[in-house]
Design a protein that fits this description.
Elements lengths: L1 H23 L2 E7 L3 H12 L5 E4 L11 E3 L5 E3 L6 E3 L2 H8 L4 E3 L4 E5 L2 E5 L3 H8 L5 H11 L9 H9 L1 H16 L8 H4 L17 E5 L3 H9 L4 E4 L4 H4 L4 E7 L3 H4 L9 E11 L9 E3 L8 E4 H5 L6 E9 L6 E2 L3 H16 L3 E3 L11 H24 L1
Parallel strand pairs: 1-2, 1-11, 2-10, 7-13, 11-17
Antiparallel strand pairs: 3-4, 5-9, 6-9, 7-8, 12-15, 12-16, 13-14, 14-15
The structure holds flavin-adenine dinucleotide and uridine-5'-diphosphate (UDP).
Keywords: FAD, Flavoprotein, Isomerase
GO molecular function: flavin adenine dinucleotide binding; UDP-galactopyranose mutase activity
Protein name: UDP-galactopyranose mutase
């Protein structure tokens, strides 16, 4: 009898111990991999509206993903992963981000250095007049371009888009060299969507973007991300790769914002991503160039030089520039939009769709050449989808 009781007590203690251990192991509702726009927007929504417990991790030593900015050793605010200019036509996206930052109005302008001249890009009326030494008005320039444009049907590639609008000469001067440098592909090998990002205008509008909302976060992107993620339901873990914690933390659902092919261990082979090397330079002068960015389509190894103070409006007696050198290897920055890559991506997307309780969001995870606002929009719509599915599991 005594022995029985002792054994029962020991068994009970053991049981209690396991119970105690299990409750010590904190369970998250969501593990979010990547603290860029995709991950951070979802973390905040799920934590504050969904009242979910979130663990967000990033393998880098900072939040913000590719939009991360910081003050360099001279005290100038710079973007670590190249110039980021916020622009959107979506009031929803703009209003959402406005909960976490004020804004500084900023209309980005770009010049292209062609044959030693600085000409507005996107190509507009002034570009044509200056390049050809003409004095056309808006109507005349339309006729002028129509006479040079090549008939292409259907418009499929990044070459088609441009030659069908402005003809071969301007295509070669402004697009062909830049594109070959940036992608190591001829424009004829890239989807139309790539060069279609840069329109052709017959008016004098010399802004790079024409979106309704164009502004920079008043105190920088990183500050905006800090505010977004500062919620008691959100834990942040930096310097942490998904592989390191996937079996260590308990979570109910997963949101992955890294490269989708990496997630599936490159099962079908690697998705191509284009990378860049950034060279920063600080000069002992207050201004270096007349616009935020100058493109170099045909000369040098870099594609463009950006002077941050134009973007941020910062006053400083020094100035910092960034040169962008395209590279085949390095951090994955750009998906490469072309048919064969889309086919390969579709195979990964099919695998992704088979997984329950796992969501793929963002530029790398959905292999889309998305701007920041498009990623925010995608994250907000994923949030809605997630809340609906949480609701339907509760009801069943
Ligand atoms: P990311 O910002 O790439 O975030 C993904 C995060 O996941 C990264 O921080 C990464 O470290 C982390 N991660 C990946 N794998 C793992 C893993 N296994 N474990 C842990 N963490 C992981 N957009 C604009 O709207 N305007 C611009 O002017 C503009 N300029 C750009 C200039 C350049 C040079 C580049 C490269 C992009 C630019 N963009 C611009 C696009 C913008 O950067 C993206 O749309 C946006 O940052 C994508 O957010 P994301 O969350 O999808 O991805
Ligand atoms: N592009 C070009 N010449 C230019 C600017 C852009 O040929 O002066 C082409 C090039 O292929 C580039 C693409 O258009 O990769 C998109 O340009 P964008 O400025 O949108 O590139 P991002 O800022 O995303 O690097």
């Amino acid at each position: 009898e005594m022995l029985k009781r002792i054994n029962a007590t020991i068994a009970n203690q053991k049981k209690n111990k396991t119970v105690a251990r299990a409750s010590e192991k904190y369970t998250y509702d969501y593990l979010i991999v990547g603290a860029g726009f995709a991950g951070s927007v979802l973390a905040e929504r799920l934590a504050s509206v969904g009242n979910k417990k979130i663990l967000i991790i990033d393998k880098r030593n900072h939040i913000g993903g590719n939009a991360y900015d910081y003050y360099n050793e001279d005290g100038i605010l710079v973007h670590k992963y190249g110039p980021h200019i916020f622009h959107t036509n979506s009031a929803d996206v703009f209003n959402h981000l406005s909960k976490f930052t004020g804004w500084r109005n900023y209309q980005h302008k770009v010049l292209a250095n062609v044959d030693g001249q600085l000409l507005p890009i996107p190509i507009n009326l002034n570009t044509i007049n200056k390049y050809y030494g003409l004095n056309l008005n808006g109507l005349e320039v339309e006729e002028f371009l129509a006479s040079r444009a090549e008939k292409v049907y259907p418009v499929k590639t990044s070459e088609d888009v441009v030659v069908s609008k402005v003809g071969r000469e301007l295509y070669e001067k402004f697009f062909r060299g830049y594109t070959r440098k940036q992608w190591d592909l001829d424009p004829s090998e890239l989807d139309a969507s790539v060069t279609a990002r840069v329109p052709t205008r017959t008016n004098k509008d010399d802004r790079y973007f024409t979106d309704t909302f164009q502004a920079m976060p008043a105190h920088g992107y990183t500050k905006m991300f800090e505010k977004m993620l500062s919620h008691p339901n959100i834990k942040i873990m930096l310097n942490t790769d998904y592989e390191e914690v996937m079996n260590e933390v308990k979570f109910r659902k997963l949101i992955f914002t890294g490269p989708v092919d990496e997630f599936f261990n490159y099962k079908y082979g690697r998705l191509p991503y284009r990378s860049l090397r950034f060279k920063f330079e600080t000069l002992e002068t207050s201004q270096f160039q007349e616009t935020g960015t100058i493109n170099y389509p045909n000369d040098y190894g870099f594609t463009r030089i950006t002077e941050f103070k134009h973007l941020t409006g910062q006053k400083h007696d020094k100035t910092t520039l960034v040169y962008e050198y395209p590279e085949a290897t390095g951090d994955p920055y750009y998906p490469v939009p072309r048919p064969e890559n889309e086919l390969l991506y579709k195979k990964y997307a099919a695998l992704a769709n088979q997984l329950t309780n796992t969501y793929f969001v963002g530029r790398l995870a959905t292999y889309r050449y998305y701007n920041m606002d498009q990623v925010v929009a995608q994250a907000l719509s994923t949030f809605k989808k997630i809340m609906q599915s949480e609701l339907s599991t509760k009801l069943h």
